[in-house]
């Protein structure tokens, strides 16, 4: 069946929030999607830098420094952006902004009012937001913070009563957990979850899995009640596969090549020393 033809620039899906506000948006595309959001007069849209694809002529774009985003100056020192792209509509007519997903995946519309005004998400998951939504870093930039919990894995928290849009790699599944219901997932596959879920990180018990490799090295046990969104292809996993494909053949086939070489020579040294000791005896 052919895709529907739109005679006007914008025929979106209109979402009516329980708080009374209406947000009109349209998600187009398959694997790499584009989000088009209608921006009303005197309304603003906040997006991650570099995600704007197009916008109407009555929209003004500006990059603003938001100290609550991404941990402030510490993130800038380590090479991450501490600014956000803000799109404001000063005209009397409605405008629109097209936001492109930065990697193959699905764009997820989230009304924070349906999740108690708070939502934990991955650092790369936030795409843009409309109205009253703040993005804060959940990782305290001090050495004394060594406890590993949901805030250390899901490094951002969304607060407010507005509309936020997240992006998950590959396909995205939504799991609604009943009270005391437990699900075990790969920690890297969690896009977002509600703060009511009890998060427990499980590290690999066998050291050889860390040395010689193995999938799902860090799993998380989630206990309801709450809602969790799970992605099939995390961005860092996709980037690792691409890096391996363009690396040297030996590194591409075995990314832990140097570790295995060191262990080989160490075991050879132990065997030689042991044989010499046994021969002397």
Automatic annotation (TrEMBL):
The chain crosses the membrane at residues 257-278. The keyword Transmembrane applies. SUPFAM superfamilies: TRAP-like (SSF51219). The keyword Transmembrane helix applies. It comes from the Eukaryota. Keywords: Membrane, Transmembrane, Transmembrane helix. This is Uncharacterized protein. It comes from Leersia perrieri.
